[in-house]
Structure formats: structure tokens, C-alpha cells
Amino acid sequence: MKKNKEVIIAKNNQTITKRILETLTKANSSVSKHLVVIAKDKALVTIDAKIVVEKEAANARAVLKIETLVLGNSPKIVVLPQMEVKNSTATVWHSVSTVRLEEEAIFYVGTRGLSKEEVTSVLLDSLINYEC
User: Fold this and answer.
1) pLDDT tens digits for the chain (132 residues)?
2) CA 66 to CA 7: how far, in whole Å?
3) How many CB atoms lie within 10 A of CB 125?
4) Are residues 127 and 62 in the same domain?
């Protein structure tokens, strides 16, 4: 399966719009799209992601996974995952998850001897480098 992972980071008052379109047209074709979105302090991120499985794509496999991480004050993330399946033999799934990095969690991990910056770095690294 063709895997594709992308990390999008939006900081203070930044606006990012990302559109993704993947189309499967051949039998036994596959795609795995994984997005990690990190938004901080009043950033605005819009993700419009679509995977299309055409009628001739028998036994195709498609995965769309979007993970979002909210940091700081009031960032906004809008996620529009779409799967258009025209072949009943295809196997497809999508998932969207959101995590807010709370000050209590940072404090708790910090009591183990790490600074706030180190804690944030470790948690971000684990999200970005996690393989599904």
C-alpha cells in the first residue's frame, strides 16, 4: 500500500487550507494518506481531504487518517474527510482524532524532571513519528 504521511503546523494567527484528492482507478490499487495537524494560538487550519475509488478499481484499498493536536489559546481546526466509493469490492476507512495538550498533562510529565519545552517536544515527536 502506498503510504503518505504529512505534517502541517500552524502557529499564532496563521491560516492554512489544505486540499487533498486521491483517486484510485485500477484493480487492486491502494493508498494510505495520513495527516498530522498541529495548531497553536488562534491559528486556523482547514483540511479538505477526499479519496475516490472509481468503478473499475476492484478490490482497491484506501485509508485516510487525520490526527489533530490543539496547543495554546483557541486554535480552530476544520476537517472534512470524504470517501467516494463506486466499487463495492473496495475496502476503505477514514478516521479523525483530536488531542488537546492540556497544561495539567504538561505539568504532570514535567514533575518527572523535564522542562515544559522538553515535555511538549516529546509529546509532539510521539504524535508525528507514530506509525499506524
Assistant:
1) 656 789 899 998 999 999 999 999 999 999 999 999 989 889 999 999 999 999 999 999 999 999 998 887 789 999 999 999 999 999 999 999 988 877 777 777 778 787 877 877 777 777 666 655
2) 10
3) 10
4) no
Q: Output the pTM of the full model.
A: 0.80
For residue 15, give the nearest of 78, 87, 71 by alpha carbon. 78
Polymer length in residues for the chain: 132
Look up the domain containing 130 and give its range: 101-132
The sheet carrying 44-53 orders its strands as 15-24, 44-53, 76-85
Tell me: do 45 and 94 sit in the same domain. Answer: yes
Let me know whether 89 and 63 are in one domain.
yes
Same-domain pairing of 53 and 75: yes
**CA nearest neighbour of 71 among 121, 130, 21:** 121
**Total structural domains in the chain?**
2
